Amino acid sequence: MNQRFSDHQGEQHAATSASGAVPGDTIRLTTAQALVRHLAAQRVATEDGTGTEPLFGGVFAIFGHGNVAGMGDALYQHRDALPTLRAHNEQAMAHSAIAYAKAHFRRRMMAVTTSIGPGATNLLTAAALAHVNRLPVLLLPGDIFVSRAPDPVLQQVEDFYDGGVSANDAFKPVSRYFDRIVHPAQLLSALPRALRVLTDAASCGPVTLALPQDVQAQAWDFPVDFFAPRVVTFYSPAPRIDEISAAIERLQRAQRPLIVAGGGVLYGRATHALQRFAAAHGIPVAETQAGKGSLAWDDPLNVGALGVTGSPAANALAREADCVLALGTRLQDFTTGSNTLFTQADVIGINANAFDGLKHRALVVEADARLALEALDSLNAGLQDWHADRTWTAKAHELAATWRDTVYALTHAPQSAAVLPYEGDVIGAVQRSAADSAANDIVVCAAGTLPAELHKLWRAARPGAYHVEYGYSCMGYEIAGGLGAKLARPEREVIVMVGDGSYLMMNSEIATSVMLGAKLIVVVLDNRGYGCINRLQQACGGAPFNNLLEDCMQGPLGAPRIDFAAHARALGALAEHAANIGELEAALQRARAADGTYVISIDTDPARTTTEGGWWWEVAVPEVSPRASVRDARAHYDAQIAARGNRNCNDNANANAHND
Q1: How confident is the model over 361-404, as pLDDT tens digits?
Q2: What is the pLDDT of residue 353?
Q3: Confidence of residue 20 (pLDDT cuts 50, 70, 90)
Q4: Tens digit of pLDDT for each residue in 423-468?
Q5: Counting beta carbons within 10 angstroms of the beta carbon of residue 209, is it exposed (0 to 12), middle (13 to 18) or buried (19 or more)?
Q6: β-pair partners for 84
Q7: What does the pLDDT look like over 266-299, one tens digit per residue?
């Protein structure tokens, strides 16, 4: 029988309650009242372990005819135990809820409720984002009448062939668990299932409970003990002994190992275990977008970002490594360079979810990151006497130190009044403005050029300091995500860095942050369009087209000249425009001293990027085109594909010979 480590017991999912209720006692509540009351009863241990606090930090709600009567009444009754927060956009409020969970390393979370119709379907993008990023959020969209008496109701999407389908069925592929509550009693099974998914490291992600509006208002006699306060802990699988033994055997053969630290390191609270393990065995650590902050930026073994947006240090070591320990990462294409970066290496996938651990043909250890690292050193003395080749460790130290010097130079470059700054200049100004409190900042970002530059250049001094959504790369997450991070960590300064394109897509939660007194500092980098995709378009041989405003179809008045500071002031924020990096630094000091949300805009260069580091990323180029530049780009693409095929063949042959 395959055994697991006994210390797993401390990580298992459990619930304790002390209600004092007499078995068989019932209370008559509507479905909505029972749902809200059950959520409000869920507790979780505080981070310091000295007490408990609510598992759900609150419920974001935008009311409509599908939830204002049922859920609205229930939330009003429990507004002290489970706060209701009003937002301005359904997708944005779900982003905020997801960011709240991310900032709490998945130990606390939020719910969101909407009406039926567009209110519900506005959540779909956020549901997909949470699914991709393995983050918990409870989605409670209103639904059509189960009775069907008033069909079709306002905003109902009718299926011509299936009378049981509603718009909410679209949530099924982007939910880790989906249920439609068609009777009050169904909550007795649906809610425990939902909570298990939300608190399970392997299955964590969005849960959707669709709530037909007539069922929300329907009453039933619920068991009283269903609402007893419960302290919930989190399920994280312990490693199997046979899998740890296989990983030890493979590592002991390695001379040039590399650890790839993903989000599972942070969510598994494995940062200290990672630092100890890497230092004890002399293993360099490269970080994914989700895993950045797993080691402090100045740790001698932190070689920086990996992959397409990676540092030269991390990518050079990845190409030479003979064994990669993929720790809590799903190895998406930006991390692996479209599966070209470390094909020569044996891969060990340590992940709470075997679906992710299996990627890159890895040897799987299905386990919590912290427990797995500890087991590697404890099983029969494990790796305690093993160390990477000393020259490899020394090389990692040297490359990491050189990269830290390069980052300093890039973020402290002299500024010319004749040249627009680029993202690296702005990042440097933001970090310099923090002085000694830099470790207390949380930077929030999502799509475009900024995540690439932040991945390389942001100096994350502690876990959680780097909050960049790049699994779904969702434009519009930034400001809403910043709000969620601030609600989770009100004592920290939250710096939202956002491009003008994302700002225009979704900025409404500036008003929500003002209303809630949740201060954000928002830095808008205005390159007058979609600069990142404009560069990608040209790298694929395309003409500049429909990305920068100057290259778009325009009417007689031309492209708009957008005053982002004036717009932010109209939403209730303090705001100003900075003409250069010097003015930006001064504005940041005013923003840090301010009591409320402060928006600063600055014009930036849409063409310039950090050239150091990086790796190939596969983007398909047309096979035929009248443009010579597209044909040239296709030839380069074909050469890269051929090189990947040859490299995989050679690396597989080398690996087989090594294994023999």
Answers
A1: 999 999 999 999 999 999 877 798 899 999 999 999 999 999 99
A2: 95
A3: low
A4: 999 999 999 998 765 578 999 999 999 999 999 999 999 999 999 9
A5: buried
A6: 59
A7: 999 999 999 999 999 999 999 999 999 999 999 9
**In the prediction, which pLDDT does 10 show?**
41
pLDDT of residue 382: 79
Q: Which residues contact 340 (CB under 8 A, 6 or more apart)?
A: 615, 616, 640, 643, 644, 647
Contact predicate 617/310, CB 8 Å: no
End-to-end CA separation in angstroms for the chain: 28
Instruction: Look at the alpha carbons of 468, 470, 472, 478 in this order and tell me if their dihedral is positive or negative.
Output: positive
Per DSSP, what are the bridge partners of residue 651?
A: none
Question: In angstroms, rounded to a whole number, what is the distance separating the alpha carbons of residues 522 and 598?
Answer: 6
Least confident span in 184-193, 349-358, 453-462, 637-646: 637-646
What letter would DSSP give residue 158?
P
Biggest CA pair distance of the chain? 80
Tally of residues, the chain: 660
Type of residue at 75: L
The Cα-based distances of 209 to 32, 113, 652 in angstroms read 11, 10, 46
Amino acid identity, position 297: W
Give DSSP secondary structure letters for 311-350. -HHHHHHHHH-SEEEEES----HHHHTTTTSSTTSEEEEE
**What is the separation of C-alpha 225 from the centre of its chain, rounded to a whole number of angstroms?**
36
The band of 4, judged by pLDDT with boundaries at 50, 70 and 90, is: confident
Instruction: Beginning with the edge strand found earlier in the chain, give each strand of the sheet holding 346-351 in spatial order.
Output: 302-305, 285-287, 257-261, 323-327, 346-351, 363-366
Q: How many CA atoms lie within 13 A of 524 on its CB side?
A: 30
Yes or no: say if 250 and 348 are a contact pair by the CB < 8 Å rule.
yes
Q: Which of 296, 387, 283 is nearest to 326 (CA)?
A: 283
* DSSP, residue by residue, 516-564: HT---EEEEEE-SB-HHHHHHHHHTTPPS-SSBGGGS---TT-S----H
Nearest to 373 by CA among 294, 288, 292, 460: 294
Q: What is the dihedral of CA 557, 560, 561, 565, to 10 degrees?
A: 140
Query: Is the confidence at residue 651, as pLDDT, over 70?
Result: no
Contact 290, 471 (CB under 8 A): yes
Q: What is the CA radius of gyration of the chain?
A: 26
Given pLDDT bands bounded at 50, 70 and 90, which one contains residue 3?
Answer: confident
CA pair distance 598, 152, nearest whole angstrom: 45
What share of the chain has pLDDT > 90, as a percent? 89
Burial of 112-129, coded b for 16+ CB within 10 Å and e otherwise, reads bbbbbbebbbbbbbbbbb
The 3-state DSSP class for residue 247 equals helix
Which pLDDT band, with edges at 50, 70 and 90, does 648 fall under? low
Count Cβ atoms below 10 Å from residue 60 Cβ, excluding itself.
30
pLDDT, averaged across the chain:
93
For residues 410 and 426, is the Cβ–Cβ distance under 8 A? no
pLDDT per position as a tens digit, 618-631: 999 999 999 999 99
SS (H, E, C) 183-231: CHHHHHHHHHHHHHHHCECCCCCEEEEEEEHHHHHCEEEEEHHHHCCEE
CA 334 to chain centre: 14
pTM: 0.95
